[in-house]
User: Fold these one by one.
Assistant:
Number 1:
Amino acid sequence: MAQTLGVITPQVMQVETPLTLSSGAVLPRYDLTYETYGQLNEDASNAILVCHALSGDHHVAGLDADNKPGWWDSYIGPGKPVDTNHFFVVCSNNLGGCRGSTGPASLNPETGKVYGPDFPIATCKDWVNSQYELQKHLKIPQWAALIGGSMGGMQVLQWAMDYPDQLRHALVIAAAPKLSAQNIAFNVVARRAIMSDPDFHEGRFLEHNTTPKQGLAQARMLGHLTYLSDDLMGTKFGRERREDALKYNYEVEFQIESYLNYQGEKFATKQNFDANTYLLMTKALDYFDPAAEFDHDLSKALACATAKFLVVSFTSDWRFSPERSHEIVKALLDNDTDVCYAEITSEHGHDAFLLPNEHYEGIFRAYMKRVLKDIPSQHDETKK
Amino acid sequence: MAQTLGVITPQVMQVETPLTLSSGAVLPRYDLTYETYGQLNEDASNAILVCHALSGDHHVAGLDADNKPGWWDSYIGPGKPVDTNHFFVVCSNNLGGCRGSTGPASLNPETGKVYGPDFPIATCKDWVNSQYELQKHLKIPQWAALIGGSMGGMQVLQWAMDYPDQLRHALVIAAAPKLSAQNIAFNVVARRAIMSDPDFHEGRFLEHNTTPKQGLAQARMLGHLTYLSDDLMGTKFGRERREDALKYNYEVEFQIESYLNYQGEKFATKQNFDANTYLLMTKALDYFDPAAEFDHDLSKALACATAKFLVVSFTSDWRFSPERSHEIVKALLDNDTDVCYAEITSEHGHDAFLLPNEHYEGIFRAYMKRVLKDIPSQHDETKK
């Protein structure tokens, strides 16, 4: 039976050397907040880095101070697919985030005021560079694996291209090699909802002691719309109303309406997600396009990757559909890269990558056994 | 060669008898603004009623006073599939609209002030009832055909159920027998964008000499997102940027962004669409579910229909996908109703129903010949 990880205390890496971002902007200093689970082995060869999605953070497993389980707790822990009895797992909040790492809500050391809109837009490349500092900080010579879903999967791709010899395995789940025009369009509408909220104050809402709750809630509602499949929404909510009789007014009436409103409010109010971080993360997604520097040829872009890959997609995911994963797999095969691909049947849409699913768990677990086998110091043990 | 219809002058039917709506609300009086094209024949047997979609209006063909062609001008006119050399075509702005028919922007005769949010929510059923008044007003004993796309297609279904002996043919294009949870969800987010705009003033924006432009533009952008297919957006805009270099800020950068912004602004500012009408139309769509009164059995709901049907869907339409049309066709077949079904290959998504397409036009034209044949007085002529 799986044990539990218990309460995890986040740690902070403080980097006092300046970081030049893709945009050319320089961060004079920054913090990366991270959590770790399991024990680093003697030769530091069992370390795994997990990259989070758009609204995720470093709290990926175990419980936080409020006893809230991590966002991927069902897959990471003792006896779980990413088994913390064997692996030392690390997850950090991305630069530009709002959960402890330096971001728009942090103090700008040069002005003594909150960055707000002055925080430079970070990219996937910048995140990877800052995580490489974390790798050195933790004295990890090479990651046994990088794992990420959605935006996190893109980050894993970026790692495999920018630091090919720093990872042995790359697990790219429910991701895409770049956003489609439709993906960008959803981000455009979400950003507009935030930026047109009168409480946005051109990004200086914290200085005005407010937050653009309405806009952020709308952006989140729109996000949820793309995370769930049409079928699942149908199964889960259908056209059910909260009351039998039609209201003939604009109050909340359908269950799906009530669900989306709840998700929006929770995100903007209870979880207090920073609106500037949301803008930044969506823009980093829009910009992600590693093939662009290689004549828009993804195969060329991935030619330098030496890691072994697991690519996973979900049948009902229409945000990053299986076809988008096929593009990645094709590019890897063009380079004779070692790649396993699994297309998991699920009705849960893009959200499926976070949810329990027997087939998915089986593949994930089997692949992680392979990752374990490839750990030099564990080799003898796993041979038994 | 097709002639042109020239400039068309809208007409207004003024109804001074009260109309009770589905909600129970009573409209003391109302106007329906409409246009007609072609000539009504002697026994008034060649009349066709076209029903418009969410943001459509009565100006379906010919030119308006500003020389703007109607929204379906490519399919309606002399020599076109709906041939005005043979048919007398009528199109009216729906009740609750903002293009001349009585709606939220009209004066409430009981208060002398603009209705605004006090205008009652109308339903598909109400639109059909008011259009039946128009039919009587025009002294048309029976429509040769009812034609509608998207929301207009739903209205045609409603006509076929509520006034089965008032139409001989029903053309239901790119429609659905009810909205899915996902369809409703998009409407929920669109309405929220409008209603949370500080210029909305709880619907009394006209009294405040303003309009919720931001919210309406966002709603329209979201609409456009669902009208276009992912593929078409990819072909048309891809990830193209307005300038080569990345901006690393939140200014308009991608072509799709620029397109959506333009569509949003145009709708909210230049076309000055009434925000309360937009709310009303989306709510009427949410409510449309004729099977609900028949144990959620669409076959039972359509059992009374006596018209012959043409049902058309488009392969890349993900708003009302071909599967939604299949539901309608199945229900009609369950009743041994005469139905033709065409699934048109198109990459244009939901918008396809408005756009030129050889296959679509061929089917439309062929079916309209059948409609013409079924006109009693034209029978001899078409036999030749």
Number 2:
Amino acid sequence: MRIAAFRRAHFNAAHRLFNPAWSEEKNQEVFGLCNNPNYHGHNYEVEVKVIGETDPETGYLIDLKDLKQIIYEEVEQRFDHKNLNLDTEAFKNLNPTAEHICFVIWQLLRARLDDRYELVVRLYETPRNYVEYPA
Amino acid sequence: MRIAAFRRAHFNAAHRLFNPAWSEEKNQEVFGLCNNPNYHGHNYEVEVKVIGETDPETGYLIDLKDLKQIIYEEVEQRFDHKNLNLDTEAFKNLNPTAEHICFVIWQLLRARLDDRYELVVRLYETPRNYVEYPA
Amino acid sequence: MRIAAFRRAHFNAAHRLFNPAWSEEKNQEVFGLCNNPNYHGHNYEVEVKVIGETDPETGYLIDLKDLKQIIYEEVEQRFDHKNLNLDTEAFKNLNPTAEHICFVIWQLLRARLDDRYELVVRLYETPRNYVEYPA
Amino acid sequence: MRIAAFRRAHFNAAHRLFNPAWSEEKNQEVFGLCNNPNYHGHNYEVEVKVIGETDPETGYLIDLKDLKQIIYEEVEQRFDHKNLNLDTEAFKNLNPTAEHICFVIWQLLRARLDDRYELVVRLYETPRNYVEYPA
Amino acid sequence: MRIAAFRRAHFNAAHRLFNPAWSEEKNQEVFGLCNNPNYHGHNYEVEVKVIGETDPETGYLIDLKDLKQIIYEEVEQRFDHKNLNLDTEAFKNLNPTAEHICFVIWQLLRARLDDRYELVVRLYETPRNYVEYPA
Amino acid sequence: MRIAAFRRAHFNAAHRLFNPAWSEEKNQEVFGLCNNPNYHGHNYEVEVKVIGETDPETGYLIDLKDLKQIIYEEVEQRFDHKNLNLDTEAFKNLNPTAEHICFVIWQLLRARLDDRYELVVRLYETPRNYVEYPA
């Protein structure tokens, strides 16, 4: 029985969007308010979708307590109350757009999940702006 | 014109997770708090997704009043304010995990819907834990 | 890196469901309360999903400020605080069911988006009734 | 034990704001888009707050099933899928602003509730605009 | 500077409404579905409101991490994944209506909070049914 | 007719909590993760409640388009996509706790509103942590 299970988590972080290969003017033109050199921030909301076959003994696709713990270790501990640009390895040299944050989270969780699971990550930057990987 | 239409409903029920083939200790180890022999409960939220071709005369994929009535008869009347383990046929011998409840609801609704419709059911156990069948 | 980005918007509009080829009785029978000749209304919520490859220079799939502006011009300006049946070209001769409104919005946005993007539109008529095109 | 109990309901209606004592220009200037002569509409959400003493035998302030039924009879049956200006007695000669709709609902429910209860009504016109009576 | 601070938490529990002084028939008549002898359940959501003067040194009314911990110890540990009627001291002899649960939570938190704070507790049994003490 | 009208808005900002009169250790002990010297951030949600008498000619307590504009000028333009500690006058010398931000917003809006209105501001730092002034 192929099914999907979802778990949501969140973290609060600061970030700034810019491309170091560009001039200040070009960064300002492309990223606008998001380019503020003093940073701004968000309540990021993460929806993790795992797909696979239900275990006939437990009736679980995956123990959501385990998934919650993995998300805590890989996402919340790493990013919560951090400045993504300054405080994290992942975004030292990667522009922390929602797209990139979503992809980095997908990679971190992918490395922790058994191969029998497919994985999709949705990241809400605000309730009106969000992304999902893979599409 | 192939489109999807969604209808949401909810029900409040008690349940307990356990596998009768296992010892009490193993049940406790695997299901933890969800194994409480006196039950606990949830406000389950159901999202029913129907996919097919729009009727050119009505402009409807399906009359959502009809879908609402089918969900009422098959899901709400059957499960609302019930103990899933004790009060329902479906879970007399099936562990009422979110995965199994979602699949049972899918079967109940599938039997009531015309073959020209595809069906996907999402079941929220809490706003942070949910499942979807088929994946 | 293939990804999806979402933007939400809303508009408040009046509408009435009916098929001019039918008798008053048949319209009443099929569309019930939604056939009220004096109209009723909704807070429509639109979720626009764009799919494609992230731009390596910006880290964006699409600049959501641009997408917000396109939705404003094509959807909000056209439909907000309007009577869909009387005030809009799109529904002069098309029954404004959620399915049709969703498809019309998809067409309007499709015409404004670059071919490298796929597009999916979800339209909420209420928090419990909604549709998505394409399915 | 003095406590408050709340029940929510909703209705979908069309309306138009205008003052018949004013010129078309003044109405347009004051009410803007809300003055559209062909109407627009909303998903109105009503929160009914009842205050009083808990009954020691039932442990209820008020049976919420009864309150739900009163709201259904007085608010949903009267206003759902209606044009407030054309289809209702209450707004034949009263501008259907959120403030006035809230007050009318308060009066309708007040007449149905026992004197031992205080009553407060909150009306959401959209998730971002709402009113509450009495203040 | 007199201000209010709020913290939300939740717990999932089973319960059954009945008055042991009444006949089965009367219990059924008054409490209806909520009287199911095999229990049903809810995702209870608790909103704790604390009122007082901001501390000039911290700029906090109360450290919400402390409040979160108190709510965890007094409410979540006590009630989460429990059968309120069978597994808790508080409702051994008290009908677990939303009103009573709210009042019990208020008493438990009141005993843990400094006298300089006022306290109001709101308890959501469902998103549409909730209570608040004191009113 | 005394009534309340509400308008919601939001802004995304970075901040850091600390008291410059304290040692680094004491700041870390009291403010924990919120003391990160590189900042973190939030999607702040503001609910503005205005109380007064309805205007008999318009049926409005206050034109919510005007209130929306005042909130835009005083709150969104000032704080959106800013670092509260570095980019704003208000928090140059005031610790940007939710309590202080709420009070500052209340002062800014109070100065723009007619004396016949009472004003209450609620500020959500996250959906689970929020404050309200005055209490």
